[in-house]
Amino acid sequence: MAVLRLSGPDALAVARGLCPEGPPWRPRRASLRRAVDEAGALIDELLVTWMPGPRSHTGEDLVELGCHGNPVLVEQLLDACVRLGARPARSGEFTRRALEHGRVDLVQAEAVAALVAAPSPAGVALARRASTELGPVLAGLAEALLTLAAEVEVRLDHPGEDLGWDEDAALAAGLRQAAGTAAALAGTWRAGRVRLEGARVALVGPVNAGKSSLFNALLGQARALVSPLPGTTRDVVERALLVDGQELVLLDTAGERESEDPLEQAGVAMGRAMAEDVDLVVVVVPGHRPMDAIEAGLLARTEGRPRLWVATHADRVAAPRAWRGEEVAHRVSAVSGQGIDALRQRLGQEVLRGLADGEVAPVVSQRQHELLRAVAHHLEQAEAALVGLAGPAVAAEELTRALGRLGELSGQDVREEVLDRLFARFCIGK
Question: Cα separation of 353 and 42, whole Å?
Answer without folding.
Answer: 57
